[in-house]
């Protein structure tokens, strides 16, 4: 099992939809390690940056941080469990009764230190950073590191850019979107399903320095505000019956389960834009995985 995590197989591409003269393809990142997709590519980048210290015993414990119910915490807990690295989670959850796949896996595989508010959590993270032991490594929230960015380069190595006209992907933290921009071989359209579009640019600009990148002129104008394309509830983590039904519909039509938090929403927007000829040509959607979270009704 350890080898399957550290050496994931190349993910395939399925053609799923033709509209007018355009065609939609889906890159199946959901086929990587329990459907953790691009999160595993990020974690591989982080792991490789620490591998020699982990093997020598210089680092013996990984600390993950963030929302207890997030994909990043879920993927991190699974990944480090299967590569035999003990983990601790500094997490927060505003609803102590909320149970999700991420919280179940985190409690089973990791030591958990949980806070009821983000403010209290932020103080705990800062205190931990100041008192971090030499045999511990603290991973940033959302896995937002330069090493995770390096790990994402493998996805672009698998794509023959001559076969497509454009790539579309979901934007959460924006790291995968940024990785695609730096790759630079095709136009990248991002759908803002994490932070709202108007908030994403300032957030990214304030966090770029942590990636050790020089000043970039990023194409924020290429980002899509989902509310401008479809009249529906796109609140982060909210599924609702419409997205559950969309997931079922796409599974029947395409033979692919597109989870309702990101995947079904993005494909709905892409399909609508293709019908209106707002997206044309051969379009590759990067389905980033996350099926384990398909049972989540809210991420608070």
Automatic annotation (TrEMBL):
Domain of life per record: Bacteria
Transmembrane domains' residue ranges: none
Keyword Nuclease applies: no
Keywords: Pyridoxal phosphate
Essential cofactor(s): pyridoxal 5'-phosphate
UniProt-recorded Gene Ontology molecular function terms: D-cysteine desulfhydrase activity
Xref: InterPro entries: ACCD_DCysDesulf, TrpB-like_PALP_sf
Signal sequence region: none
Family: Belongs to the ACC deaminase/D-cysteine desulfhydrase family.
Name the record gives this protein: 1-aminocyclopropane-1-carboxylate deaminase
The species this protein was found in: Leptospira saintgironsiae
């Amino acid at each position: 099992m350890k080898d399957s995590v550290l050496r994931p197989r190349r993910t395939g591409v399925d053609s799923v939809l033709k509209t007018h003269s355009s065609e939609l393809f889906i890159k199946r990142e959901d086929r990587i390690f329990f459907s953790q997709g691009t999160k595993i590519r990020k974690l591989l980048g982080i792991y490789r940056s620490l591998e020699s210290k982990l093997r020598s015993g210089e680092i013996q414990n990984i600390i993950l941080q963030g929302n207890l119910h997030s994909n990043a915490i879920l993927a991190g807990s699974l990944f480090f469990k299967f590569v035999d690295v003990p983990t601790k989670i500094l997490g927060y959850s505003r609803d102590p009764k909320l149970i999700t796949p991420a919280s179940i896996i985190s409690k089973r595989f990791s030591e958990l230190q949980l806070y009821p508010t983000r403010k209290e959590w932020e103080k705990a993270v800062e205190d931990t950073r100041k008192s971090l032991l030499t045999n511990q490594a603290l991973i940033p929230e959302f896995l937002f590191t330069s090493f995770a960015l390096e790990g994402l380069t493998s996805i672009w190595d698998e794509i023959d850019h001559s076969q497509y006209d454009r790539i579309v992907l979901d934007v959460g933290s924006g790291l995968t979107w940024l990785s695609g921009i730096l790759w630079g071989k095709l136009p990248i359209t991002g759908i803002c399903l994490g932070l709202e579009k108007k908030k994403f640019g300032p957030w990214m600009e304030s966090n770029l320095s942590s990636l050790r990148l020089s000043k970039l002129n990023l194409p924020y104008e290429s980002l899509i505000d989902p509310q401008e394309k479809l009249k529906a509830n796109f609140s982060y983590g909210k599924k609702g019956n419409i997205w559950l039904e969309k997931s079922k519909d796409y599974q029947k039509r395409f033979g692919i389960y597109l989870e309702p938090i990101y995947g079904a929403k993005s494909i709905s927007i892409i399909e609508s834009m293709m019908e209106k000829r707002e997206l044309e040509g051969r379009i590759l959607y990067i389905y980033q995985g996350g099926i384990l979270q398909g049972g989540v009704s809210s991420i608070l």
